[in-house]
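Hi all, a correction to my earlier message: I attached the wrong file for DHA2 family efflux MFS transporter permease subunit. Here's the right sequence:
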Amino acid sequence: MPARTSPSTRWWALIVLALTQLVVVLDGTIVNIALPQAQADLGFSDGQRQWVVTAYALAFGALLLLGGRIADYWGRKRTYVVGMIGFGAASAFGGLAQSGAELIIARGLQGAFAAMLAPAALALLTVTFPSGRDRNVAFAVFGTVAGAGAAVGLVLGGVLTEFADWRWCLLVNLFFVVVGLVGAALFLSESRAGGENRYDWPGAVVVTLGLGSLVYGFSLAEIGWGSPWTIGFLAAGVLLLVLFVWIEATVAQPLLPLRVVTDRVRGGAFLIQAVAGSVMIGSTLYLTFHLQIVLGMPALWAGIASLPIPLATMVAAPFATRMLSKIGPRPLLIGGPLIVAASLLYLSRITADGAYAVEVLPALIVMGVGMGFIFVPLQNLALYGVAPHDAGAASATANSAMQIGGSIGLSVFTAIYAAALGGMEHAVGDAAQLASAYGATFVAAAIGMVLAAVIALVLVRGTKAQVISSEKDVLVHVE
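and the right structure:
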């Protein structure tokens, strides 16, 4: 239809796709604020509580590569529509959940369908805006929405939990689903990759089982690192991931071409992305618990009180971009994690009767600045030296690293939290002990960020010239 290719229709398509990206990103954080009320309502344990977050991040990260392949091969609009319907159904199921197990299953299904939605939306944006100034504007809008999604999720989660019910943090997605489906019918056109396309089903199954086993093994560390179940699942996860590497090295059309991850600089960027994900997803969850459970903030104020992190990141990003062109990525990727580590160590000193403005706020501002110094160069290095036909896999790998890192990090932090409580999972009445346990998770997160700085020191050798080259590679991919 001519209307589908007209300039005005393209901008309507951008609105639809940007809203899709918003809902995918905000669903990673919108439930965080609601968790204390959901836990009280459904009566699930602290271990199940962390799986409400982990299930989404794990399914999203583990299936993202496959979701991108399905969109390319089966049809991007078709994948988008199926993903949107499935995401809406999973959200409705979660909003009506009557137990912790049902809520966890719903979150996993949300993540699985989000893994179809996210790459399909990005691919549709690429074909809708093939070149020129309009394309740069479209990607700037899309990227801004993605960057603001976490902040929107925190505030929206607080508003819905405070003035409606925690279930609306899931049911609100139905509004986005309706807009997405109507918008797809009116403004989106079908497209798919040409040539002979084969799915790497063995690779997809093995990597999903491997990552799932690894994350579940880390979650079992709460009952003991020496437990046969813990060791068994961790070992199985490692063996399955080794098998995945062998499969990818032998199949004609691998899910993840190994050349994407074996480059020294790019591989280092993926590792840093995983550590950053563990901190952003894991430690910030325990921050919201401290704000609500220990400091007694209502859900809305807890969401607002968490905003300094994403806001400081958005403020720091333009400065980091200018520094990147002058000094290259390596100093930023060494300094940024160390700044975040310092903020986390400051945050670990929280007490049950401490003031938010003194014990929490300064750390959040500094953390956000450090994260800005991390994410800006990572976006460049993730596609450094990547051939155009591998750019999609590289981008998906970076997103997967973030989500899987968050899943593993959250499992590790939960184990540390449980150990700090001395195994007293429901010691919610002892605010001082809870604050101390949350502080222990922040110390662990700080150690992780120091490790990220070491990774950058050893592996990331990108110079100013290489960053410029990386930007060209990105343009080749998206144009």
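Sorry for the mix-up. Residues 424-428, 467-479 have pLDDT under 50 and may be disordered.
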